[in-house]
Design a protein that fits this description.
Blueprint lengths: L1 H20 L10 H19 L4 E4 L3 E9 L2 E13 L5 H11 L7 E3 L7 E7 L2 E9 L2 E7 L14 E3 L2 H13 L9 E6 L6 E8 L9 H4 L1 H4 L3 E6 L2 E6 L2 E8 L2 E8 L5
Antiparallel strand pairs: 1-3, 2-3, 3-7, 4-5, 5-6, 6-7, 8-9, 9-10, 10-14, 11-12, 12-13, 13-14
Length: about 270
């Protein structure tokens, strides 16, 4: 009896200590707040893998509530996107290149199915996944996501950093040509490219509804002179100028201009 009671106390004590101190062994045991630094680090790795000559957009992280961990337990999901703009014919090869440049620990898997739906999957650690695919001609969308987890109501990191003057100077003429007001204080979303402190930043300006000036390449003819054009369609233009990536898009009656300072060469 004494031995049985001692053993029961030992098991109960070990279980209590483990619950308080050991890391969770499944995603549902780890909160969304705990995963946010992993999401931000992975987004930085994606920006770095895109390279110094990339035309990209770094989106701010999003926290969504309302998902279900179980039928009786609600949770939250955190996501962050990085979009890379390339010539449409090069999209598949660039997705392969991005996968090759990610850390080996991410265990990247790139699929080339017969139907042409080229996809990338990777594991950023802490049960945080990365998925990537060509979502539109010339647009690679890479998403870092936590999946549904316990919601500890985290505060998203302050990624709305002061916009570098060179980004404001690059975006303003494009915005003005497309009828978007300029001169207002703006911020930029940033992610760390490496441990040396380099940061990739994206500044975003959006016009009012129904302010679409027609085919964007025509409206931006003067701005495109002397630049490196990467993508040009009726409703999307992406190019590089003086080390800054610039993207103009018209969608759902709105015009958006994004200026991005990419990661430096690694």
């Amino acid at each position: 009896m004494v031995a049985a009671v001692a053993w029961a106390l030992l098991v109960a004590g070990s279980a209590y200590w483990s619950a308080r101190h050991d890391p969770g062994t499944i995603r549902e045991q780890r909160s969304v707040g705990r995963a946010l630094p992993v999401v931000e680090r992975a987004a930085g790795q994606l920006a770095a893998a895109a390279g110094p000559d990339a035309v990209l957009e770094v989106a701010a992280p999003r926290l969504s509530t309302g998902c279900r961990i179980t039928s009786a337990r609600a949770g939250a999901t955190a996501e962050q996107e990085v979009r890379v703009f390339v010539p449409p014919a090069d999209a598949g090869a660039r997705l392969d290149q991005l996968g090759d440049r990610l850390p080996e620990a991410y265990r990247v898997r790139v699929r080339h199915p017969a139907d042409g739906d080229h996809t990338l999957r990777a594991d950023a650690g802490e049960f945080v996944g990365i998925r990537g695919r060509v979502t539109e001609p010339g647009v690679i969308t890479l998403t870092v996501a936590t999946g549904c987890r316990p919601n500890d109501r985290p505060v998203l990191a302050d990624t709305l950093l002061p916009a570098p003057p060179e980004l404001v100077a690059a975006a303003n003429p494009v915005a003005a040509a497309l009828g978007i007001g300029t001169g207002e204080p703006v911020g930029a979303t940033g992610v760390r490219c490496d441990n040396a402190g380099h940061v990739a930043r994206s500044l975003r300006l959006t016009g009012q509804p129904s302010m679409v000036p027609g085919p964007l390449p025509t409206a931006l003819r003067a701005q495109l002179a002397g630049t490196t054009l990467v993508l040009s369609t009726v409703d999307r233009v992406a190019y590089r100028h003086d080390g800054v990536g610039l993207v103009a898009e018209a969608r759902d009656g709105r015009v958006t201009v994004v200026a991005t300072q990419p990661c430096p060469a690694q």
